[in-house]
Design brief:
The complex is a heterodimer of chains A (832) and B (226).
Chain A (H helix, E strand, L loop, with lengths): L1 H14 L4 H36 L3 E5 L5 H9 L3 E13 L4 E9 L9 E4 L7 E3 L7 E5 H7 L6 E4 L2 E11 L13 E5 L3 H4 L9 E7 L2 H11 L8 E4 L7 H38 L1 H9 L4 H42 L9 H26 L18 H20 L2 H34 L3 H12 L1 H35 L7 E7 L3 H10 L3 E2 L3 E11 L2 E2 L6 H6 L10 E5 L7 E6 L10 E4 H6 L7 E6 L2 E13 L10 E3 L1 H4 L5 E7 L8 H4 L7 E4 L1 H39 L1 H13 L4 H38 L8 H28 L2 H8 L1
Parallel strand pairs in A: 3-9, 6-8, 16-21, 18-20
Antiparallel strand pairs in A: 1-10, 1-11, 2-3, 2-7, 2-10, 4-5, 4-8, 6-9, 7-8, 12-22, 12-23, 13-22, 14-15, 14-16, 14-19, 14-22, 17-20, 18-21, 19-20
Chain B lengths: L2 E12 L2 E13 L4 E6 L5 H8 L7 E6 L2 E2 L5 H11 E5 L10 H11 L5 H11 L15 H13 L5 E5 L7 H18 L2 E5 L3 H5 L3 E6 L2 E6 L4
Parallel strand pairs in B: 3-8, 3-9, 6-7, 7-8
Antiparallel strand pairs in B: 1-2, 1-4, 4-5, 9-10
Classes of the chains: A alpha+beta (832), B alpha/beta (226).
The complex binds adenosine-5'-diphosphate (ADP) and magnesium ion (MG).
Magnesium ion (MG) binds next to helix 1 of chain B.
Family (chain B): Belongs to the ABC transporter superfamily.
Organism (chain B): Aliidiomarina sedimenti
GO molecular function, one term (chain B): ATP binding
Amino acid sequence: MWHKISWRLLQHELRRGELTIMAAAIALSVCAVLSLSLFSERLQAGLLERSAEFLAADRVLRSRDEVNTEWLQQASDEGLRWARRTSFNSMAFAASDMALVDIKAVSSEYPLRGQLEVGSQAFAEGAPTDELPQSGEAWVASQLFQRLELALGDTLEIGNSEFTVTQVLTHEPDSGLNVFTDSPNVLIGYDDLAATGLIQPGSRVNYHYLFAGDNADIERFESWLLPQLDDVTQRWQGITDGDTPLASSLQRAEQFMLLASLLGVVLAATAVAVAAQRYCQRNYDAVAIMKTLGGSRGLISRIFTLHLLLLTVFSIALGTLLGYLLQAGVIYFVAAYLEQSLPAAGSGPYVLAIGTGLLCALMFSLYPLLRLIKVPPLRVLQRDLAQSSLRAWLQWLIGGGTIYILMVVYSSSWLLSAALFAGGSMAVLVLLGISRLFIRASRTAGMQAGSSWRLAMAGMQRRAKQNSVQMISFATALMLFLLVLALRNELLADWQNQLPDDAPNYFVVNVADDQVAELNAMFEREQISATDLYPIVPGRLMAINDELVRDAVSKEERDASEFREGFGRELQLTWRADLPPNNNLTEGNWFSEDETGSVSVESQVAERLNLAVGDELRFSVGGDEFSVPVSSIREVDWNTMQPNFYMIFDPATLQTSSATYIASFYLAPERSDELYELFRNFPQVSLIDVDTIIGQLREVIEQVSLAITFVLVLVVLAGALVLVAQVQATLEEREKELVILRTLGAPGKLLSRAVTYEFVILGALAGLIAAVAMELSVFLLQTQVFAMQPSIHWRFWILGPVLGATIVALLGKAVCARLLAQNAAGLIRRLS
Amino acid sequence: MIIQTTAVSKKVETSAGPLTILHAITLAIKAGESVAIVGASGSGKSTLLSLLAGLDIATTGQVLIDNENLGDLDEEQRAKIRADKVGFIFQSFLLIPSLTALENVMLPAELAGRKDAEAQARELLGKVGLGERLTHYPNQLSGGEQQRVAIARAFIGQPKILFADEPTGNLDSTTGHTVEALLFEMNKAQGTTLVMVTHDTTLAQKCDRVLEMQAGELKEQSVDVA
Ligand SMILES: Nc1ncnc2c1ncn2[C@@H]1O[C@H](COP(=O)(O)OP(=O)(O)O)[C@@H](O)[C@H]1O
Ligand SMILES: [Mg+2]
């Protein structure tokens, strides 16, 4: 029986629009979370898919020796696809000349991700292909055509075998990241490898094993394989590991999305709380009547709890549907824009969104519901009676607790949540105080003003307590809006700055000492903007504070005892007198002229190896060993397309004529066919084209800026909802006031203006407070979370109040419009 | 005696100290009787009504309905008594705005878990002349119509006692008279005991008995004329 009453109440109230705000608030929070998390999950999956092309696989196992075939069998058993890529340096002989090349022998499944591109002309644009070199064929990189004056169809002698050059190899998906490969690539089939006779015991060969497959399969294989790896001679590599530019951009984007959706949810939750409060207040009479008519408390709790549950389920279903559609629409455009389809998301976003909706709806309406159920029947005779025996702190406890839980769920960090929460609570308290002050001050100001203004001020004053709460929600909504807006601009500008249109798109490597001057002169003459030439000396890190590192001892010794973690592979060392651009010292001092003999270490390496300023490092360079102290730790921006180094020495320590040099430069795409002429005089240097990497980075930025714009829209919606809910909550009060003023003969224009002014003042004050609070939050976020340079946003100090006044006044007027349009008689009837 | 009170008083705490609203009121009302309570505004009429109906409890003294002492019962048990034996009509109608006329009338029966609620409600709405307005919401009805719905709602549980707090107070006099007539007619037909607070002396005169409240004390005006 009782469930019929719940159902009926829901049906009628939905139809009559009494639950619109509440339903909209719940639906919006579900919709926002769902669309956002679906969107970001799919975007990320898409990006990962794209980034997998950097590796030509999902995971790569690099080894110095052939691995146990059991491992490959296991991969097949787990349902993974795998391929071999075996590479080594060798001399290649053409008719007239010879050159050192990098031979890559690949098995027929290669590449597992991405595509090879080939062409018929060196340094020209190639086209994707699914083929591989046939037996007896070799595909050769542009540089070798330059160096050996090759033409297609020529014969290349490698070891004991002869190969016909059939294609210019213009792009390999997995060549992009290692800018230190200094010899041109020659791609041959794996089956041709043995016949060359180049693989002998003791020869230095890189055995790479590429794996691809479903995430779950890969993870299973990974957990089986990892414990068996020898961490000195073998290395397991995924997409987001390492210092790829993508990894750090993605991380920042992810942090932003997380934060923004959390803010959106907090806003929507506020709207739910305000709407629930108002909804329950409107039902006080209904509960009193039901109790008077003999309804027991249990029955009435059941009726209203079910009512609320039904409303919640309805709103969540609506939100889920809207969220899905919204996300599908956005994805549709994004995918068309990016010319890439995005993979489907799992069930995670749905669980998160529905959970959030349930939590918001139930927790925020719990306190009002408890109060509602406690309404005494006597209210039917004593109209003003409302039970207030429930403590207000209970409401703050439930509300605060819920927001905290949401924060933890979203950030999956207790600590970050606690910090955010404490900061937020402080902000609310301060805001409350400030808004009280403002309201009090505005009364004095209003005394000297015209009658509409005076009425507006009086109205504000009368509702001081209500208004300061209202002002907090206005201010919070505006602040979050400004915050997301400012951060969006900052983040995007920050990213764009790192990748300006003339970001270097080529690396030149293997430049000899005696050619540095000539190359610099050429750059200048041809007006090519290039970075400095950095010397490169290969070397190994042997010991830290006289403790040998693992890679400096033999395998037998290593297994026998504990060793300090080392770098794990050969390092590219450089020397330099001044700090490179886009490097920031975090500890210690840069080399000074008079004291020599020290090294500056990149911060991530320092962290991994547990290094501090003053630690003594022993290096082995070209057979010599020497020790230097760490004089500084540097942060390096890996997003820049410039040569970056883990270890930089002062010139006196390392300088040698045997180094080769590296630089990056920008050559406009339309000049790319000049490359051959430009580098004609430098036959032994190699060029590496990084346009692809830059393209992918730009793509990430574009996708992220789209996502951020989308977040902004959601935050605006949530904010507007809070405003409407708040204004609606004071509607009854306003109604009574208007009746009295109308009955006393106040002209409609005056009242209408007074209402407008009141909202204008409220909005402007809220906007100003919001701008200040926003500035503070952006500062904290920039310095603490995003590792960016802090900045001040003066425009927002004007934008805030103007926006606040406009939005709040428009929304407020819209909500009150019906009231103002009525004549006194109508108003009185509405009240009775 | 269907209602009986002995030395009932009501004290409340206010910010200006304790305030006694009712002073030792003793009265008895027979089954089927109609009683009017009159008196100046603020004299304690509504407070007395709330005690008689068990909406509130007396500070001292006893209230018995159908020989049950309300003071011995908790809120749930008093609700049960209201569900079984009592009907209400209020000055401000107090219909639930989001339920239709029919649903408002069905409500008490449904709260009591009765199955035949709808048929009965239709019949009652027919009797009060609103057979055509079943699906209208309260805000689509005039004040008089709303009060007629309230009367139908009051009678659906076939209560032994009907409490009315200024039932015509919000209505113009013509509508007020129609509603009054209806109230008395239905009261007669069902043999209900009627306890009615009113300002309207002609309405009061139609009752078997008139009790007058003066500053929280009871003064009987006229005794049973029948
Ligand atoms: N809970 C209460 N607290 C304070 N004063 C009350 C309370 N309930 C009633 N009163 C006061 O008691 C007096 C009687 O109220 P009421 O019974 O509503 O009068 P009536 O219905 O005769 O106009 C009024 O002065 C009213 O203000
Ligand atoms: Mg009264």
